[in-house]
Write a structure and sequence with these properties.
406 residues, alpha+beta, five-stranded antiparallel β-sheet, three-stranded antiparallel β-sheet, 8 strands
Length: 406
């Protein structure tokens, strides 16, 4: 059978069943995917056959393509085949496909059906990833039309039903803790850039219910840059995630923490303060998500532990755009010590090599940042560190005294 005939068949199970090699590759990808619905994986059991996996995959794809924001795509064989290829090749997991892929495909199909795509965007086969296709949704020349195509009443319904707690709202930032899917959906469809977070997609209810019981989600809008991917962020400390609107380097928590700290110095501290000041409201509003509501102290500890650079970053008063301080700052030089006698005892010299006045190299091991700090002795050094960074335990520091100059 010609490839084109296979691709035109609507049901992906029928297509894959004719190709044992593809079925085997799908089975391998499935068994290594930690984002699949847990109940479905448990139902199939640890020894599911390739045939069972193929049929389960077909149903998941049909559900994804049927429930996007722009209409039912489940009958178009191009789309389930394209998504299956991405999955088998390791370019996307189920969360990528179900959380973002359906809406990205729906946007392209809606514009294509109405003859609104530019010639360069009309060839569907040129797209090699969900991210490439996602560009259609965020192209400013398409965005207004896509907004009109969406069911406006659905958006309004979500706005009416949303439950969230606003923890920061000033001239620069708008930050919320969503307490239901409606809040996530509203955040994802607000003015500006449309982030591709799975929790605000058309199938986001499933993902909200998957993530929210494990810990609070925090959604962030930079009001001054809301039209670009870096203007919309979301983090979930319970699963080590902090991502911008494009979910660049989704699994690189440390890299994204560093990027967030540089883009928004001091904001994570504001967020923690906002959580603390709205603790009772957040706890009461989350009782339907987790028994007794969120443990606020635990949530804050997780934020400090998972995003240390963002927590440590601070705005410099004289330069708002400067890079944030993410390591212990070198304080002003201390007065020079009194000159020692020329014939100091040997044991005193040995002591000064490890302690005493001088310059100390201090490395904060969780962030691998180093600073040189002058101090009278190690006790004085720790006093300075504890005064500036009261939340950091002493065991986080690796300290080496630099040799005294002759």
């Amino acid at each position: 059978m010609k490839t084109v005939d296979i691709l035109n068949e609507a049901n992906v199970a029928a297509k894959i069943a004719k190709d044992p090699k593809t079925a085997k590759m799908l089975g391998i990808a499935w068994r290594h995917d930690a984002t699949l619905p847990r109940t479905l994986v448990a139902k199939l059991g640890p020894r599911a056959s390739d045939e069972q996996i193929v049929h389960a995959w077909s149903k998941l794809l049909d559900d994804t393509l049927r429930t996007n924001n722009y209409g039912d795509l489940s009958a178009d064989g191009r789309f389930d085949d394209w998504l299956t290829r991405l999955y088998i090749n390791g370019a996307a997991d189920y969360e990528d496909i179900n959380g973002e892929g359906g809406d990205a495909l729906g946007a392209w199909a809606a514009l294509n059906k109405r003859g609104l795509l530019r010639p360069a965007d009309q060839d569907f086969n040129k797209f090699r990833s969900i991210r490439q296709l996602q560009r259609i949704r965020n192209d400013r020349s398409y965005r207004n039309e896509l907004d009109r195509i969406k069911d406006a009443e659905h958006v309004e319904k979500m706005k009416r039903e949303k439950k969230d707690v606003v923890i920061v709202d000033n001239d620069r930032y708008y930050v919320v803790v969503p307490l239901n899917y409606g809040a996530c959906y509203t955040f994802g469809n607000a003015a500006g850039y449309k982030p591709n977070f799975c929790t605000n997609s058309s199938s986001g209810l499933r993902w909200f219910n998957n993530y929210a019981p494990d810990g609070m989600i925090v959604s962030i809008t930079d009001k001054q840059n809301q039209d670009v991917a870096d203007g919309k962020w979301q983090f979930h400390a319970a699963t080590n995630q902090i991502v911008n609107g494009d979910q660049e380097n989704r699994h690189d928590r440390q890299g994204n923490d560093e990027k967030f700290s540089k883009l928004f110095p001091g904001l994570m501290t504001e967020i923690i303060q906002g959580i603390q000041s709205h603790a009772e409201e957040i706890k009461a509003g989350s009782t339907e998500l987790t028994r007794g509501g969120y443990d606020i102290a635990k949530e804050i500890d997780a934020i400090k532990s998972k995003y240390p650079l963002s927590v440590a970053s601070k705005v410099k008063a004289d330069d708002p755009e400067a890079e944030p301080e993410v390591a212990p700052e070198e304080p002003a030089a201390e007065p020079a010590a009194e000159p020692q006698a020329q014939h100091a005892p040997v044991h005193a010299q040995a002591h000064d090599e490890q302690d005493g006045p001088g310059r100390y190299s201090v490395t904060h091991t969780p962030t691998n940042r180093t600073a040189i700090i002058p101090a009278h002795n190690r006790q004085d050094l720790m006093r300075k560190l504890n005064q500036r960074y009261p939340d950091y335990p002493d065991t986080d520091y690796q300290i080496t005294k630099q040799p005294n100059e002759a």
